Amino acid sequence: MSLHAQDDPALRAAQEERLRAVWKPPTGWFFRWTDTNNNQVGVWYTLTAFGFMLFAGVLAMIMRAQLAVPENDLVSPATFNQLFTLHGSMMMFLFAVPMFEAVSIILLPQLLGARDLPFPRLSAFGYWSFLIGGVFVTGSIFFNVAPDGGWFMYPPFTTRTDLSGLGADIWMLGLSFIEVSSVAAAVELIVGVLKCRPPGMRLNLMPLYAWYILVVAVMILFAFPPLIAGDVLFEMERLLGWPFFDQAKGGDPILWQHLFWIFGHPEVYIVFLPSIALFAMIVPTFARRHLLGYPWIVLAAVGTAFLSFGLWVHHMFTTGLPKISLAFFSAASEAVAIPTGIQIFAFIATLWAGRVVWSTPLLYVTGSLAIFVIGGLTGVMVAIAPFDWQAHDTYFIVAHLHYVLIGGTLIPLFGGLYYYWPLITGKKLSDRLGRTAFWFLFAGANLTFFPMHFSGLLGMPRRVFTYPAELGIGGLNMASTIGSWVFATGVAIVCIDLALSPRREKSERNPWQAGTLEWLAHPDDEDWGIRSVPLIESRYPIWDQKDFVKKVDEGRFFLPDAEEGRRESIITSVLDARPVQVIRLGGPSIKPMLTAIALGSVFILTTYHLYWAALVGAVATLAMVLWWLWTGTAEIPEKDCKPIGHGIELPLYISGASASGWWAMFITMMADATAFSGLVFGYFFFWTRHEDFPPSGAGLDGPGAFWPMVALAVSLAGWLMTIGARETNRRGAVGAARALLALGAMASLAAIGAGLAGPWLSGLAPKLHVYPAIVWTLVIWTTAHAGVGAIMQLYTLARSVAGKMTPKYDADVRNITVYQHFMALTAVVTYATIGLFPGAA
User: Fold this and answer.
1) What's the farthest any 2 CA atoms get from each other in the chain?
2) How far is CA 775 from the centre of its chain?
3) Residue 175 contacts residue 651 (beta carbons within 8 Å)
4) What are the b/e assignments for 601-613, b being 16+ CB within 10 Å?
């Protein structure tokens, strides 16, 4: 593909003016908050997550003050329980994961040479969900109703309403709402990496940051949904009295530990790998060479993700597991050190082979690696079951956890902040303040947490608000408290540096002389981002491609204009980044914010048992989603194709597996199916724990085979009719397609009745025993999805009748068919399980 020069200055100036007008954010402080540009959303996201981190840090300082001396009474036991629960919950759910998502929403478009990610309104919805849920959970401490059961919320104490107050509901429902935000961001990031790369950027040319974010976002799809499944069971026990974790009625609290740690251990790598991604961008810049071992690093990242899902049981070594389980999970826990080591040694080798230019960001990288390696070594220690039996639930584990999280997440983020601040604001932070802050952070982290190894081995248990002087650990705890203040001083210096930043002069363009695409940004950058979408031939195009920056700036690549006055970017193929579509992105809109408020009301009102009001909120949420979809997706363009430069024309509308919307539906349903698998796991977990499962007796007899098979049959009928509607519509038989959609909706509604009839007519009483409770849960999950399927079928029918879907423009019916595929799989598993296995009749 030849690149022809665009030599008319007047033409370039006109193009730039049109781009500026299209991408200019709305005026007025409120309306700027409704802008859905990912750069804008990412900045809000980052500032909010940073604020939550500072608040959680204050809670930690209060805890350390309480533990500074033996038998202290600074705070009460109840207050201390709220402090450590909220501190851990905020750091994991409101800072670590949201922060990496926020930073990625800012960086990825620029790293990929894209004008924006494909669903900016989805990013905005995720942000508002995060903000509302975060304020709801965090604010609870000011009313003395904060959760107090630990960030892990182990039953049965937390599920019994007589032993735990409203805080458990606030934790469960508030963080469930935040998990919606995390999954939404994961969908945006996965589709962005796979479909928004610039022409020529094959998978093996992607920046390593993009690889890491792709891996981590996929991990979120498989890690968060099991926790969502656990949340469903948890709240149904608290609100309805269904005994999933009540041993007296056949339940088992160990199920919660499985579901929680299937999420909880990958979570550690979900927050660690993005920091390694920052290292992968910073190290080659200051080594002044390409990063060594690119394919090995990619394989190591994928291997780390894969192994992380086989480690969760090492959090449960003290629960009385079989020895074969102990051996397997112990070996897997030690094996994960191998891919981690590959990545670290690749960075060291790159620095060794390069011409290192020492800088503040690189100082943070090396220091955080040193802290993380110490945490990794103690991780190998606790992976050995006999040692874990001694150290479990002592301050040795607290030390290990914080070495990993501070070295693997927090300090790297500060390094990334100093590296990327000129990209975001056009101004550098102070090297002097940055290095001063680093040494406070480095010394403070080690002084705080290294003594905890010894206090733990000397017998100090976790999560205690005080300890006797006779234990002999007062000096160690005082050292940890002093270290926490040293660390807090480092954080304060970083905050001061940020506050002084607006007064500083603009930095030069690409001040670090980096080679990757994001540094095309100019200190006086416009809101439309990259001037023209480039053709990529190297992993470091600024270094390797001749006159690359000049050609981009002069609009000599692709999509250098916005003739129709729309926000646009290029969609490419997944493997080799061939251009396939010009996508028109959603502009500023209040709909994401209103939708998040409506959905948030459902969770918040349910917390206070205001069920009818919550139902109104659910109806409002449905109305907002339908309004959003009707007016903002699958728009029929005014013309078929659009030239993007150099004689290439791309369609403005595509559907099916090449379209970003299809991928978003598929990825969302993968997360949904993973949550469902958590519920099915619960069913078979209870089966393994009981000799008589299902039990017999009044209110306990299974639903039999008849009604589940009827429900399965009509569910599959609805699925087949949707497929038929897609195919007949494609062939131009619009009337037949509409009829099939109507019949499919009727079948989906019939599946609801047939699915509920089985447990209802058999008299299953979910409060009596865990068997009827888990059967009802599976049926409710499946019938609720059938109801959503019916809404989708009727919505698509309405789009067809309104002329918004045609045989040519058929994204709606193709996307809902993906949903129906997963719906059919859910129906097969549910009704076969409760109707045919094990011996239910």
Assistant:
1) 86
2) 30
3) no
4) bbbbbbbeeeeee
- Cβ atoms of residues 526 and 446 within 8 Å: no
Q: Are 515 and 542 in contact (CB under 8 A)?
A: yes
Measure the CA–CA gap between 65 and 477, rounded to whole angstroms: 10
Identity of the amino acid at 255: L
* Whole-number Å distance between alpha carbons of 154 and 564: 56
Of 473, 576, 500, 570, nearest in space to 530 by CA: 570
Helix (H) or strand (E) holding 758: helix 734-761
Q: How far apart are CA 508 and CA 511, in angstroms?
A: 5
Q: How far apart are CA 75 and CA 6, in angstroms?
A: 69
Instruction: Indicate the burial class of 832 (C-beta count within 10 angstroms; 0-12, 13-18, 19 or more).
Output: middle
CA–CA gap between residue 726 and residue 777 (Å, rounded):
32
DSSP 8-state symbol, 789: H
For residue 25, say if its preceding peptide bond is cis, omega within 30 degrees of 0: no
Q: What is the pLDDT of residues 251-304, one digit of tens each?
A: 999 999 999 999 998 999 999 999 999 999 999 999 999 999 999 999 999 999
648-651 and 641-645 beta bridge pairing: antiparallel
Show the tokens assigned to 217.
């976002």
Q: CA 624, 625, 629: angle at the middle one, nearest 5?
A: 120
Instruction: Tell me the chain's radius of gyration from C-alpha atoms.
Output: 28
Using CA atoms of 554, 560, 565, 570 in order, give the dihedral in degrees to the nearest 10.
-150
Half-sphere exposure of 413 (CA within 13 A, CB side): 25
Q: Enter the pTM of the model.
A: 0.95
| DSSP per-residue string spanning 690-749 | -SSSS--STTTS---SHHHHHHHHHHHHHHHHHHHHHHHHHTT-HHHHHHHHHHHHHHHH
**Residue written as tokens 């040795």?**
396
Omega before 694 within 30 of 0, i.e. cis = yes
The answer to whether the beta carbons of residues 109 and 39 sit under 8 Å apart is: yes
Contacts of 837 (CB under 8 A, 6+ apart): none
Percent of the chain whose predicted confidence (pLDDT) is above 70: 97
For residue 155, whether the previous peptide bond is cis, meaning omega lies within 30 degrees of 0, is no
| Distance spanning both ends of the chain, measured CA to CA | 67
pLDDT at 37 over 90: no
Task: Express each pLDDT in 619-666 by its tens digit.
Answer: 999 999 999 999 988 889 999 999 999 889 999 999 999 999 999 999
CA dihedral 380, 381, 382, 387 (to 10 degrees): 150
Q: How far, CA to CA in Å, does 277 sit from each of 266, 271, 407, 815?
A: 16, 11, 14, 33
Q: Is the pLDDT of residue 780 over 80?
A: yes
Alpha helices by DSSP H, listed for 568-655, are 591-607, 611-632
Instruction: Quote the CA–CA distance of 580 and 118 in Å, as a whole number.
Output: 14
In the prediction, which pLDDT does 28 show? 67
In angstroms, the CA 422 to CA 516 distance is 15
Closest by CA to 762, choosing from 775, 750, 774, is: 775
Q: Token pair of 371, please?
A: 């802290």
Dihedral angle sign, alpha carbons of residues 500, 364, 518, 353: positive
Give the pLDDT confidence of 799-838 residue by residue, as tens digits. 999 999 999 999 999 999 999 999 999 999 999 999 988 6
Cα separation, 402 vs 409, in Å, equals 10
3-state helix, strand, coil in the chain (%, to 5): 70, 5, 30
Cβ-contact 823, 676 below 8 angstroms: no
Directed axis angle between helix 97-111 and helix 253-287, to 10°? 40
